Amino acid sequence: MLSRVADSIYWMARYIERAENLARFIDVTQYFSLDQPDATNHWKPLIQVTGDEELFLKRHDAFTPEAVVHFLTFDREYSHSILASLTAARENARSVREAISSEVWEHLNDFYHGVKSAEQQFQDDVRAFARYGSADNLFDWVKRNSLIFEGLIDSTMSRGIGWHFANLGRLLERADKTSRILDVKYFTLLPSLDHVGTTFDDLQWSELLRSVSAFEMYRKQYQTITVPRVVQFLVLDEMFPRAVRYCLAEAFSSLKAISNNGLKRTDDGRLLNRAEQELALLCAELDSLGATTIIQRGMHQFVDHLQRRLNDVGDRVYSQFLLVGP
Amino acid sequence: MNHQFQNYQTEGFYDELFDEQGRPRAGARTLVEMIDALPPGELTRRQKAIDQALLKMGITFNVYSDQQGTEKIFPFDIVPRIVEAMQWGHIEAGLKQRIKALNCFIQDVYNEQQIVNDNVVPRELLQEAKSFRPQCVGFTPPRGIWCHITGTDLVRSGDGAIYVLEDNLRCPSGVSYVLQNRMLMKRSFPKIFSASKVRPVIDYPSRLYDTLIHLSDKERPTVVVLTPGSFNSAYYEHSFLAQQMGVQLVEGRDLVVHDKRVFMRTTNGLEPVDVIYRRIDDDFMDPLAFRADSMLGVPGLMSAYVAGNVALANAPGTGVADDKVIYAFVPEMIRYYLNEEPILPNVPTYVCQRPDDRAYVLAHLSELVVKAANEAGGYGMLIGPASTKEEQAEFARRIQADPRNYIAQPTLSLSRVPTIFEQGIEGRHVDLRPYILYGKSIWVLPGGLTRVALRKGSLVVNSSQGGGSKDTWVVAAVPGQVASAEESL
């Protein structure tokens, strides 16, 4: 497969996953704020954790729901907004249209046009939109369309290099975003370490789990909600498909499949190429940790570290497979 | 009876579906009857459904000036143009003859130059042709074929005769619309379709692939389509053809030349490339050989080509026969190389370099169409009857300053086809671009792209200037009769 094409497929999948997770973030924040109308501002941390506070404040005066929702959903100048992500996903798809299935392309095209037209609804009724994500709930709609996209990738593309790059892209992105969503909620829900360990079947922790479709699966495994268990489940679980550890294990199999297809591992006699090594190390690191260790070291520090390591993996993948020749 | 076409008028123009008395032509009878049998409003409804389908499939082109990324579909009109099989046989034979002669000409001018030695084509014309590539002198491309893919523009004038308007030997586009239009028509009018016995176009991609692999000696050569990138207005076509042929679509940056061999950058490292269907003009193909400022090309590509390590379609240098002044000499070429009379005539052409012609053109600017030798897409043109005095004066200046660069032709009264507009159906002017492949033999895609000027009275069919397209049906005149032996394909 052409390196450029592999790169575009990888980013197409990443951008869709990014849009989906942003929709999940906004969705869960809306629920939080509905339950606590007078409590602290839930919208500000959302901007803080996505890491673009500076740009936001250049464009808006305050962290109102309307401003935050518009910024994260429709702002074209904010490169991670849902609309910007979909535009980028679509541009990537367009440049490799012959390498993906027509179903994938047509769905993505439709998806993009759908979000574009939702922008008009937003203009028409800003307040209602910000609170409820419009009558037909845009964010749920984005989530569902991302899932359809995934389903189309999985059911219409051969398990060749192209599919593995798509899979790699979406799983690395998902690992990153699951950790972020934990980060953003963790410090609003848990201002002090003293709360750790108390059993409280808190509505808000349930919402957090729901936001990554994890509530029911968590219940099956642990029944009662405790912080270390939630952390364990979202970071270290090997079976739940949005848990960081699960994502990395699956990403590793795709990376291996890609490497096995070429001659990438033979150059200096090592068993794994540099990209595989980097990812294997990260998996091993997670395996050596327990949830309580993560909490004691500090959730935010841990998530920061994890994200840096994920970036390293992405860089290695790039230099190994996508940057070819002179 | 006669719902849709009840008030249809040919208004004195040659109409492709109706004769002068307003009766459907033999080949169009089935179509006209079946369209007439549709309930009122049905035709418009199907037209709208097709517009929606095009948007959904993302078959659009970008409007660059719009920051919101507005995309437009290339308008498609659902009333097809019909060409009767007998007439098609004539067109097909004429095109094959023409391509054969043009290929002989290109080979000749880069090698022996007999045609200029014999003074059939003036030597100074050739020397001054901008599209003549000195890099190709003395070169013979694989299999001796220069113009592998051609999209000749034909027009029918008021007298009912078909003329060749332009040869388009460089990177003719539009064939993807032919295939896409056909697919949409089959979906929208399955009944009319099966009753009309239309000759298929679906095998174009596999014919194209055969044409391309013919250029390599390898048993399974690696073929790629080279595109300028996704911002090019014909990008959809490039990706469509690559997908349909099952080959890689590459951009210049995906290719690299090492030791005069071409490779593509893949996830497995560098892989060799044998045949390139390039949709980039000569000028931008290789910054080392042609324009140094090209960001789209592949440095060293020309050296790999000249060394015989990679085949290019169309061959660099082919554009010399696309020069609009050289065009005027194609009938002579046919006589010279093939010893035959041209089957399809040229539009009568005044070559401004000839003093007599020039004097005539300057005296009749308000009646003629003036064209620059190396422009395409309807640019660099003066349409006399629609021009102002100032424009005529400007062209007179340009012609006198550089007579070599201009030709003029009478303003043709292009034939029309019934076309849907907001209030119903009216005649609109059309041309026809058939596609010709030169591989083991010469093959002509039955039909081709009918381009239609959607504005009433307009003669400009270019997509950049308000044109649309129609499906083109080659049908047997007598219902039930098979149009051709090739039907079984």
Structure, described:
The complex is a heterodimer of chains A (326) and B (489). By secondary structure, chain A is mostly helical. Chain A has 2 domains: 1-157, no CATH class; 171-326, no CATH class. Helix content of chain A is 73%, strand content 0%. Chain A has helices spanning 3-35, 43-50, 53-59, 65-73, 82-94, 102-124, 126-132, 138-156, 161-189, 203-211, 215-222, 227-236, 244-261, 274-287, 291-297, 299-322. The radius of gyration of chain A is 20 Å and the shape is globular. The two termini of chain A are 18 Å apart. The relative contact order of chain A is 0.11. Chain B has a domain at 348-411: Dna Ligase, domain 1, CATH 3.30.1490.270. Chain B contains 15 helices and 23 strands. In chain B, the strands form 7 sheets. A 5-stranded mixed beta sheet of chain B has the order 3-23-22-19-18. A 4-stranded parallel beta sheet of chain B has the order 8-7-12-13. In chain B, a hairpin with a 2-residue loop joins strand 18 (416-421) and strand 19. In chain B, helix 3 (85-109) crosses helix 13. Residues 479-489 of chain B have low confidence and may be disordered. The chains are: A mainly alpha (326), B alpha+beta (489). Chain A binds chain B through residues 1-6, 87, 91, 94-99, 102, 105-106, 109-110, 113, 161, 165, 258, 261-264, 321-322, 324-326, and chain B through 55-58, 69, 229-230, 235-236, 239-240, 242-243, 248-251, 253-254, 256, 263-270.
How many E strands of chain A? 0
The whole-angstrom Rg of chain B is: 23 Å
Task: Identify low-pLDDT runs of chain B.
Answer: 479-489
The fraction of residues assigned to DSSP E strands of chain A is: under 5%
Q: Which percent bin holds the helix content of chain A?
A: over 70%
The CATH topology assignment of the domain at 348-411 in chain B is Dna Ligase, domain 1
Number of domains of chain A: 2
Question: Brief description of this entry?
Answer:
Chain A is an all-alpha fold. Chain A contains 16 helices and no strands.
